[in-house]
Amino acid sequence: MSQQENGGRLVLKIAHLYPTLMCVAADRGNLFSIEKRCKWRGIATEVDPIYVKQTPDFTQYDLILFHGGADREMEIASQDIQAKAPSLREAAEAGTVFLSVCAGYQLLGHSYKPFEGPELKGVGLLDMHTEGSSERFMTHMALECDFGSGKQILVGYENHSGRTYLGPKAKPLGRVLSGWGNNGKDGGEGAVYKNVFGTYLHGPLLPKNPWFTDFLIQRALERRYGKVELTPLDDTIESAAHNAALKLAEAYKGTVSAIEATHWKR
Amino acid sequence: MQTKDVKSEHKEQARPQPTLPAAESPSGIDRARLALAISAGKLASASGRLLRIGGGTSLPGMIARRIDPNVLKSVVGASKARKIVITGSNGKTTTARMTAAIADANRFRVSQNRTGSNLLQGVTSVAVNAASIFGNLDCDVLLFEIDEGTIPHAVPEIQPDVVVITNIFRDQLDRYGELYSVAKALNKMLESLPETATIVLNGNDPQVANFGQNARARRVYFGLETMEVGTPVPEQSADIIRCIHCNHDLEYKVAYLSHLGLYSCPNCGYTLPKLDFAATSVQLASDGEGPTHTTIRTPQGDIELTIPLPGLHNVYNAAAAIAASMAADFDITKSDAALSHIRPAFGRLEKIQAGDKTIYLSFVKNPTSFNLIMRLIAQHQGKKHLLLAMSNTVVDGEDFAWLWDADIEEIVPDILDAICCGNKAEELAMRLKYAEVSTDKIKMIHDREAALDAALRNVEPGGTLYILSGYTPTQELRKIMQKRGWVKHYWEE
């Protein structure tokens, strides 16, 4: 499967934020997806886990991953990330690619007010704020995105009580086809600002949306290396998983909690 | 769902005393409704077995509850039997099985529910089947394993004498949202128990050990306390690795399974409680098959056990069962004899002969159980043929993200081939691909019977097939094997 076309010249530098703190919904699958899809094309990856109390220069990275956690973990991350925030903002302005998921996504905004408990301060990198609700969206989700090369679909599973509202500087990542997205009202899901992407999609997101993985890899590499062509990979299994998830999202459209609407037998 | 035969010696045993006020005396109409509910439930149960449809485990309870919503409370609440409830993420079934074995060795008559019928309907089914139509239960011990999310609803109806919490792992996030919301509800339930009840807690679990601090009920702790097994740090999917009081990273003297271990907080001093039932010595079999030798320190002295089951998890199960048994006033000196012939529960690394081939059937449902079974299998000789099966249902869940938290990478060099089945076949196949199992070794076959046949065709005569499957697929695969005469129906076990 490995392609030597790029001759191992390219190196993708990844910062994985709080890998043991913000890791609740198996989102490390996103990292696996990026690493393997680079490896299979002969692109090298260097991954730095970034823990609490570490304040690296984030502008040296091509791609920054920031995943989900429960409210308790979020509180720790919210406090700690204030020291990292200036460098994260600098990296974002310089075009570094970010993928943030769920609690990580929420913390890139201005603030997160849990349903119970005090408001948590975010990084303020995405123009948005989030408020907790007593109702939790826990179901399959599909959205339609367009990053300039036609409409494409993202699929996954959402599990959040936060309702996110975007300000004028952030655009939604996509339009909800099924599921609830940012707040269940305005039809938007996730956020984009420059190369910063945020979403509520778990699943994990990237393995079953290989086009999006490749899009992030390409964006991240092109910033450092200029125009990059990614060798196509055989995505038979990934496409099957994508289609299966899309079918589920369609079948569970309108459910707040998939588990309550599911079958006893299959 | 069985009531064991009365043993004549039992008559000399002291009957357990009811610890809670007797149910209010019901009116004629209430009594008639109760009788109708029980009869309808029993009828559903009998026809389910006769027709061999479903597990026959949830429907009777569902019907009975519809006729009389108080049926569980009327039957169980009024019973003089000792009531033991076992909950937690992993180990419920085997702990219940071991507790039942110790009760049986004490010649108590036990009624208990089965895996998968651990939601409210299933629990009600047990009560309905074990009761006379007038709502009288003729057994000495009622043993319930209950889903951790169902507990807050079930406990007020059952009014248990003993509650065991085995552990809380990352599990069922699609059902309960967050790990902490499950923990919060469990703790609230424990605080509602009367002072006559006993709470049995896993002291090695930093979160569970802190449960019931304001409870009136007595608390006892079980766990491991040895340096003979374990690792220096918890595995990746461990959940509670920060102090529950001050959020500082916990320090581990040794980690046994996931976040279970000998922990302490260097910041605030939080550490595990003194263990009343501690495995002070553990010798695991190196072939991944057992038996397991362990010494359990108890308030009544050391108990030496030889358990014919593999793995550290079964040491936890045994320690929990002995703790629950003592809390229920069973004679725990009978534990070794009781546990020495215990067989694996349905689908717990269950060894099945399929003609000239061997099958190991394993039910896995979260990263902790997946990793555990995978590591046991890795100790078996030779390269492995696998069948992986997952499906989304009410019992199995909707979100299978946890597969990406399982450390499948560890077993990859050992995999000869893998068939992925169920309606999560694609996700399974993809997980294997990203663990770098070569795609020509992976096949997706949705149909369970076709998948089983294909997987067995991969196995050479005399060879072994390893099945790791979710709850419903385990049940369905076993049903196929039962039709072929490879296993007994689990009612007949």
UniProtKB/TrEMBL annotation, chain A:
Keywords: Cell shape, Cell wall biogenesis/degradation, Glutamine amidotransferase, Hydrolase, Ligase, Peptidoglycan synthesis. The active site is at C102, H202. It catalyses: L-glutamine + H2O = L-glutamate + NH4(+); beta-D-GlcNAc-(1->4)-Mur2Ac(oyl-L-Ala-gamma-D-Glu-L-Lys-D-Ala-D-Ala)-di-trans,octa-cis-undecaprenyl diphosphate + L-glutamine + ATP + H2O = beta-D-GlcNAc-(1->4)-Mur2Ac(oyl-L-Ala-D-isoglutaminyl-L-Lys-D-Ala-D-Ala)-di-trans,octa-cis-undecaprenyl diphosphate + L-glutamate + ADP + phosphate + H(+). Its EC number is 6.3.5.13, 3.5.1.2. HAMAP family: Lipid_II_synth_GatD. The lipid II isoglutaminyl synthase complex catalyzes the formation of alpha-D-isoglutamine in the cell wall lipid II stem peptide. The GatD subunit catalyzes the hydrolysis of glutamine to glutamate and ammonia. The resulting ammonia molecule is channeled to the active site of MurT. Forms a heterodimer with MurT. This is Lipid II isoglutaminyl synthase (glutamine-hydrolyzing) subunit GatD.
